[in-house]
Amino acid sequence: MKKTLFTGAGVALVTPFSKDGSIDYDMLGKIIDFQIEGGTDALIILGTTGEGSTVLFNERIECFDFSVRRAAGKVPVIAGSGSNSTDYTIQLAKAAESVGVDAHLVVTPYYNKTSQRGLVKHYFTVADSTEKPIIIYNVPSRTGLNIKPETYKELSKHDNIIAVKEANGNLSEMVKTRMLCGDDLDIYVGNDDQVTVSAAIGAKGVISVLSNIMPKYTHDMAMYGVNGDIKKCAEMQMHILPVVDALFCDVNPIPVKDIMRALGADCGDLRLPLCSMSDEQLDRALKSIAPFRQEILAELSKI
User: Fold this and answer.
1) pLDDT tens digits for 53-63?
2) Which of 9, 56, 178, 289 has the greatest CB tally within 10 Å of its CB?
3) With 90 as the cut, is the pLDDT of residue 234 above it?
4) Of residues 165, 204, 217, 257, which has the active-site annotation?
5) Catalytic residue at 165?
6) Among positive and negative, which fits the CA dihedral 226, 228, 230, 231?
């Protein structure tokens, strides 16, 4: 049995940018402190929500280094180290490892994609190159490539491949992956609206966008699921569903950054090609979360 990296809710952290487009490390530090104090179980740095695809190599390593030092061992720091090039992924992973990250989140190759056989060769090659554990990131809506349960079974044979962030939305495939891999591959669901159903089949938690604005709530909800109280987890999930829907009313991380800014936690603009929602879109999103406004502000006010 492999060692579980974390249980509960890991935050897919937004990356705050200054007016000149650089990473705002003062704000990033505040956000990291807020997440740790709010009970977040892991920090995922420069993943999809963190706009890692528009952050250059040296910026990435500087950001990983800062996050590791700020977290100071209180929670695992997981680096978004994936790309569509195996060689470049290895460069990122080695550099991230050199500054002390605890693990890598490695997305499936995008654009050029590959076969299921190629996925195994890609991940085994990356896993052989680093001493840190790897969480596979499967998000076919962005990459155009889906990992099959049978492929997970093969991938789970590598000691360094310990988990998957599953964001394909296919619950039947998630059940089959769990059946085939058992404790050789932990599952973290990548969709905030599937925490309950994934917990029911043994997932270890969620890698969450919701955690950016409600870390304590998301942690508590996920832990109810992990600890077997599926009824309470489901109650919390259904209660917060309008907020989750608002966070995905446009391309992630556009809504979460716009909502945070509107509620006083300004983490800067997005990097092109991402751009803010229209005023009308933002107004609709804010109206949909209006019943939860005080609940959210109670958490965000701590930044």
Assistant:
1) 999 999 999 99
2) 9
3) yes
4) 165
5) yes
6) negative
